[in-house]
Amino acid sequence: MRRIGERFTLLGPGLGYLTVLMVVPLALVLSYSIFQRGRFGGLVYEPTGENFSRLFDPLYLDVVVTSVKLAGVTTLLALLLGYPTAYAITKLPPKWKTVALIALVLPFWTNFLIRTYAWIVLLSPAGLVNDALTGWGLIDEPLQLLYRQPAIVAGLLYAYLPLMVLPLYAALERMDDELLEAAANLGARPARAFLSVTFPLSLPAVITGCVFVFVPSIGNFVVPELLGGGQTAMVGNLVRDQFLKARDWPFGATLALAVVAMLVVLLMIQAWSARRLAGEKNA
């Protein structure tokens, strides 16, 4: 009993935090999803399955497809930019590694909304990007960079790129350089050594980084609203609108549950992939 009491003392705060801020809200959302919307909003406590059938409406499926596409493009670009960045940081002297990592996480010290508004200043017709292109004579008229899907991808990429770089850096930093030396001694060129040694060993970190970027990107609603001008709706915007504008709490809760279920599946795939890759490595 004493040992159980000690464990409960250590686990109690964390379990209480998870219960209050995750389990209880999820239970409330689940309960909302099975009821009907009132005539003027709110809830009518009459069970129904209509909310779940509405998920397959082509209008909402199109929003989900758009969200997956934008989040997927953001994740792919984050991987293409983040992997070389993480690799380059591992090759720096120790002092400059610290500087590079601080510079990488420095944007997180600034409010997310302020950082998003900064992109509006950069991409607006009278912004710095158009001024620079006009000044260099590359364009005659300002480009419409805002309120398009590429602007949304740029905002999401800027926001979540560090979440890709950090796990990749951690994996590459722990990698034994003698493995690359052995590959070179066996006649492998640098590109062959990277494909045969470096990338396979860092694959768990690649999967983790992709999940870290994809999950918040698909649920983000601030960036599509500000940089997309509300012209491109993502799942996060749809959930917010159902709660705050349409006042359809049951369907908003159903959408939120669908997103949570999709993200849980992604996390399960990530965990399964990590275990499988760890088993192959140990074998």
TrEMBL record:
Boundaries of each ABC transmembrane type-1 domain copy?
A: 64-272
Q: Where in the cell is it found?
A: Cell membrane
- What are the transmembrane regions? 12-35, 63-86, 98-120, 151-172, 193-215, 249-269
Q: Does the record bear Transport in its keywords? A: yes
Keywords of the record:
Cell membrane, Membrane, Transmembrane, Transmembrane helix, Transport
Q: Which domain of life is it from?
A: Bacteria
Database matches in Gene3D superfamilies: MetI-like
- Indicate how the chain sits in the lipid bilayer: Multi-pass membrane protein
Give the UniProt family note: Belongs to the binding-protein-dependent transport system permease family. CysTW subfamily.
Q: What is this protein called?
A: ABC transporter permease
